[in-house]
Amino acid sequence: MIAETNQNDHVQASPDNAAALQNETETCEAGCSERHSHHSQQTKNNLITRLNRIEGQIRGIKGLIERDTYCDDVLNQIAAIQAALNGVGKLLLENHMRSCVVERIESGDHAVIDELLVTVKKLMK
């Protein structure tokens, strides 16, 4: 059976972990013409671990379908994967807002707000 994901397995802003988030987030290269990742190694490792788990769950669903597993069981696993992907998206969004968005606003680039709104709308579909 596929391991269930913890839907609350994402970083939440709180006074206790605010300093840890601040230390973990690297600065954005706001002035460069190319866009690229700016995440700390700890964040990258966290994202890769989550994505590896999701990848395994997807392979597990394929196996469930091959073994003619009851549809409701397969659908529950799909829901777990969707929740896990949402967790990855939330983590990425939070780190993006705490670094790139803040830095670009501080440098006077308010176009980042429109960019962020488009991204959030896509995540909320």
Automatic annotation (TrEMBL):
GO terms for biological process: negative regulation of DNA-templated transcription. Coiled coil: none annotated. InterPro entries: Metal_Tscrpt_repr, Metal_Tscrpt_repr_sf. Pfam families: Trns_repr_metal. Residues 22-44 are annotated as: Disordered. GO terms for molecular function: DNA binding; metal ion binding. PANTHER family: COPPER-SENSING TRANSCRIPTIONAL REPRESSOR RICR (PTHR33677:SF3), TRANSCRIPTIONAL REPRESSOR FRMR-RELATED (PTHR33677). This is Metal-sensing transcriptional repressor. It comes from Paenibacillus dendrobii. The lineage of its organism: Bacteria, Bacillati, Bacillota, Bacilli, Bacillales.
